[in-house]
From TrEMBL:
NCBIfam families: phage_chp_gp8, put_DNA_pack. It comes from the Bacteria. It comes from Roseovarius atlanticus. This is Gene transfer agent protein.
Length: 200
């Protein structure tokens, strides 16, 4: 299985000014533009880290997900949430021939934690032997920062500030995530079921 981010978080959606205020950075410095680029990079890193830990997409964007088999042909749980639209479903065989599936044959079951692709009949279309299914979908809470749940937005700000303040230290990973961030995102960390196992 492979999840690919097809579109990036737009710069306009990043709360660079809010992070500056949180860090109490002054304005009017000659390197202001340089600081903006640095803060943008830490915001993107913080968003990625929190999305990876929660399985929740913050700023809305497009994804594609390929898988070799359905976990349940009666309904396939999608790998992230919340999903607002399934844009396409296609099947590819070993020879890379692609079949676009009629959108009238499936539907999105909306769920804040575990959205599901459901067939309108009894089963999703069979994936060719040695082939893959590719699902293109749109996921995310909001197109703008102001539309995010406040706790997730605050968690990103705290984590980005942590990255900025510890930028000269080596080592990262879970050990670099402050306790306050863990507390803010804990309720979003549900166990998510994938094609062959679970991740939480």
């Amino acid at each position: 299985m492979m999840l690919i981010e097809e579109t990036a978080v737009p710069l306009a959606a990043l709360p660079v000014d809010e992070l500056k205020a949180h860090l109490r950075l002054g304005s009017g410095f000659s390197d202001g533009d340089v600081q903006d680029v640095v803060l943008e990079s830490y915001l993107r890193a913080a968003i990625s880290a929190i999305e990876a830990r929660t399985g929740n997409i913050l700023i809305e964007r497009d994804f594609s997900w390929t898988l070799t088999r359905w976990r349940d042909a009666g309904g396939q749980a999608l790998p992230v949430a919340p999903v607002s639209a399934v844009n396409a479903l296609s099947l590819r065989n070993r020879a890379e021939d692609q079949e676009l599936i009629d959108p009238a044959s499936y539907r999105l079951e909306l769920d804040a934690q575990r959205p599901v692709l459901r067939p309108r009949s009894s089963r999703l279309p069979a994936i060719p032997n040695g082939g893959v299914a590719e699902i293109s979908f749109t996921a995310g809470y909001s197109q703008t920062w102001g539309g995010l749940p406040s706790d997730l937005g605050h968690a990103v700000t705290l984590l980005a500030a942590h990255y900025y303040e510890n930028r000269n230290e080596s080592g990262a990973g879970d050990r670099a995530m402050p306790f306050g961030v863990h507390s803010l995102i804990e309720r979003y960390r549900t166990v998510r079921i994938f094609g062959g196992g679970a991740a939480g």
